[in-house]
Design a protein that fits this description.
mainly alpha; elongated
């Protein structure tokens, strides 16, 4: 999942995040990222549904 990162590199990254944001801000940051991901997935699903609907309507008009 993390490519060529080892345990030491991941630990350094986590410590840097803790130092930069502080322990109190990390849950808020994670919650914001989660909300953003949910909104992105919902928007992506809506676009896929719109594409499927437009493909169906195009294929129905081609048959006539």
């Amino acid at each position: 999942m993390f490519g060529n990162l080892g345990a030491g590199e991941i630990l350094i990254i986590v410590l840097a995040i803790l130092i930069l944001f502080g322990a109190k801000k990390i849950p808020e940051l994670a919650q914001g990222i989660g909300k953003g991901m949910r909104e992105f997935k919902k928007a992506l699903k809506d676009v896929e549904e719109d594409i499927k609907i437009s493909e169906k309507s195009e294929s129905n008009t081609d048959k006539k």
